[in-house]
Every structure is written in C-alpha cells, then in structure tokens.
Amino acid sequence: MYDIIIIGAGPAGMTAAIYARRASKSVLVLEAKSYGGQIVSTPDIENYPAEPHISGFDFATRLYEQATALGAEFRFEKAVEIRVEGKVRTVVTARGSYEAGALIIATGSECRRLGLPNEDELVGRGVSYCATCDGAFFKKKTVAVVGGGNTALEDALYLADLAETVYLIHRRDEFRGEDATVAKLKERENVRFVFNSTVTALKAEKKLTAIEVTNKSGEVTELEVNGLFVAVGRIPENRNFASLISLDEAGYAKASENCRTDTPGVFVAGDNRTKEVRQLVTAAADGATAATEAVKYLASL
Ligand code: NAP
Known about the structure:
The chain is an alpha/beta fold. The protein has 2 domains: 2-110 and 234-300, FAD/NAD(P)-binding domain (3-Layer(bba) Sandwich); 113-230, FAD/NAD(P)-binding domain. Helix content is 23%, strand content 29%. The chain is built from 6 helices and 17 strands. The protein has helices at residues 11-22, 56-69, 131-134, 150-160, 179-186, 280-300; strands at residues 2-7, 27-30, 73-75, 79-85, 88-93, 97-105, 109-111, 127-128, 142-146, 165-169, 191-194, 197-205, 207-215, 220-224, 227-230, 234-236, 266-268. A hairpin with a 3-residue loop joins β5 (88-93) and β6. The two termini are 15 Å apart. The relative contact order is 0.19. The chain binds NADP nicotinamide-adenine-dinucleotide phosphate (NAP).
C-alpha cells in the first residue's frame, strides 16, 4: 500500500513525485512507455524558466534522476484500470495491481497524427506537433501548418512572426477556431490560406523538403516547405479511467486549477486535464499542485 500512486512519468507525473516525496509520502510512479512523455521528442527546450537550452531527453532524465534520488519508485507498466473502494484506490496494470490512498493521473495527451507513411520518421526533421517548441528552428524559412482549430490558427500566427512564409492548410473552407484569430491572420502578408485541402504526402531527403497537397477536386499541388506543423487535434490518454473521472467532449479530464476530479482522492495533472495552456511549465505546475492536494486529502482521512 503506497500513499500516492502517480500514473504517467512525464513532467507532470515526475514533478508530482518530487513534491509527494518531499512531503514524506511513499510514491509509486507507473509508466506505460519510458519516462519523459511528449517532451523527449523536443530537440531543444528554450522556454523553461532559468533553463535557456536543454534537450527534452536531458530534461526528462534530470527530472527522473531527481525523483528517484528522492525515493520515488518507478515501474514501467501500463495502467489499464483504476478502482475506488472506501479509502483504497487500486491501479490495475498488465502485470498486477497496486493500492494507494490517493491517485494522480498524469497520462498526458497524444497529438493526432495525419497518418502519412513517413510522418513518424520525419518528426524532428521538419515535422513538428508544437509550434512554440520548434518554431524558432524555422526563422526566415517556409513552413506549413495543417488544421483549422484554435491550435492551428495560433500556431500559424506564432510562426508568422518567425518564418518567411506560412501556409495554413485546412480541409474545409471555414475554420473551427476563433474569428478573432482568423482576422489577425488575414492581416499578415506572409500567411497564405490553402482551403479545402489535405496534406497527402511528405517529400524528404533526410529532412522534409516539400508536401503534397490535394484539394477537394482532386487537384494535387506540391509546396516546397522546410517545416510542417501538424495541429489536427489531440487525443488525451484518459480512456482507461473514464469510469471514475468525468471527461469533457474532447476526452480531457474535468478538473480545475486544484487538479481535483469529482472522485475524492483521484487527481489529474498535466496535458490530460481541461486547461488553456499545455506547456512544459504548466505540466510541472500541475504536478506540484496535484501532489500538494493529494497530501492534503490524505491528511483529511
Ligand atoms: P480541434 O479544435 O479539435 O481542431 C482540430 C482541427 O484539425 C479541426 O479544424 C479539424 O478539421 C482538423 N482535423 C482533424 N483531423 C484532421 C485530419 N486528419 N486532417 C486534416 N485536418 C484534420 O483541435 P485544437 O485546435 O488542437 O484545439 C483543441 C481544443 O483546445 C479546442 O477546444 C480549442 O478551442 C482549444 N484551444 C483553445 C485555445 C485558446 O482558447 N486560446 C488555443 C488552442 C486550443 P474540421 O474543423 O474539419 O473538423
């Protein structure tokens, strides 16, 4: 029986582990893949306070070492179910089950992929899912953003300040995202709208060199680009916990800034919860908050 089980060893989960251990709680961190989460795919983090340059992998490794040095236990097992019985919260994994007084779900979210054959191998070589993370690598270059929601619109606006040309490619002729952002984009001379079109192929010679775009009439155009920012929505990793926590329409766990869910003793931290800003620094902040709230909850039992 642990005091706190944390599901997910990304920045939110590992920060929660640090805070929980510093409050002298026994901590088990369960992770389905390897530690670090989404941040390990970022080549250079430039927006974490007091850390002007660090690779995502180095950042995650330092966080992992910090949490383990403080005594957090890690097991690399996928949590497939959670149960609540009285004061006991149980996490079932593929290999066994573990009990705790409180749970923190910090499983993050996955960017939806376009599903193109060479998409995965070009991540970090022209294909990105995070304009604020990787935009600076495309100063004065030509980039494309695909998607029509607020993320795509905001990414295009952010990139318009850096890149020479930004193509914004959307599969319909009307954006899902806010009109106010669309109006700002229309004022930018270096933003070109490509409507009723989808990206159907990625051309590369080691790095991305061009994209093939197909419109609704079947017409195919090749655009030479250095970067492609994919912003076609996210998939929060909450499916296995939906029986105990309320999710919004997009699948994010409903919780406010205190990271409490509607099930007592079950907290949620990081990208899988409803929030406005999904960044490394806000994931870490959630980890601190969720652990602090979990410690308060245990003290109240
Ligand atoms: P989203 O709102 O779900 O939009 C995803 C976009 O990608 C849609 O325009 C969709 O097209 C398109 N799309 C989906 N699958 C596609 C595919 N396979 N190929 C091409 N296009 C595809 O996702 P999001 O922009 O990441 O935003 C997620 C949530 O966060 C939203 O509620 C959004 O409002 C919110 N958000 C808010 C802010 C803010 O308030 N500042 C900033 C960012 C995000 P269709 O439109 O045709 O479906």
